[in-house]
Amino acid sequence: MRKTKRYPVKGANSLWQVYRTVPFWKVFKNTFIIVIARYTPFMPVKNWLYRTFLKMKIGEQTAFAFMVVPDILFPEKISVGKNSIIGYNTTILAHEYLIDEYRVGEVKIGDEVMVGANTTILPGITIGDRAVVSAGTLVHKDVPEGCFAGGNPMQIIYTKEEMEERRKSEKETR
């Protein structure tokens, strides 16, 4: 189960009421920073923009590939550990706006995590240290540390123990 907090709304759908939830100028600033960072080829500059202006928690030597989109409304709810890779065109959401409610949840991505291209990470998700998420995955539940997950719907393909065994056998065949 994803860890999100629910906020019911009355009247028009929750997205229609977005500026009752988040100030317009915060959304404007976040949009501006995200657009700049999406096209910035320099990892340290990109991480500085995210840390400084979006208040994201990002570990050292973490790389956000070209066109990654962090949450535009609640980027401060995203944390990524050290030496991780977030693949091309990945979207990391910390919110979801529905008809009768909106939900907000922290996204925690561990150390040395590899997230493949074109992945969507939903709010309230934790991805454990040294996990691998294949390209094109919809991450709708937690990913345990060290495992390999992928697909839509996402499934655990190899557990941590199976991944360690695979790495060990690959080293032996070299």
Structure report:
- There is one protein chain.
- The protein is α/β, with parallel strands linked by helices and 174 residues long.
- It contains four helices and 17 strands.
- Strand 16 and strand 17 form a beta hairpin.
- This is Putative acetyltransferase YvoF.
SSE map:
Layout: E1 5-8, H1 18-21, H2 24-39, H3 43-53, E2 57-58, E3 63-64, E4 69-70, E5 78-80, E6 85-86, E7 91-92, E8 95-97, E9 101-104, E10 107-109, E11 114-115, E12 120-121, E13 126-127, E14 132-133, E15 138-139, E16 148-150, E17 155-158, H4 160-173
Parallel strand pairs: 2-5, 3-6, 4-7, 5-10, 6-11, 7-12, 10-13, 11-14, 12-15, 14-16
Antiparallel strand pairs: 1-9, 8-9, 16-17
- Count all strands and give the number: 17
Fraction in helix: 25-40%
The quaternary structure here is single chain
Overall CATH class: Mainly Beta
CATH superfamily annotation = Hexapeptide repeat proteins
The CATH architecture can be named as 3 Solenoid
Question: Could you name the ranges where pLDDT drops below 50 across 5 or more consecutive residues?
Answer: none
Strand content range: 25-35%
Task: Compute the number of helices.
Answer: 4
Biggest β-sheet strands, sense, barrel: 6 strands, mixed
Give the terminus-to-terminus CA distance: 41 Å
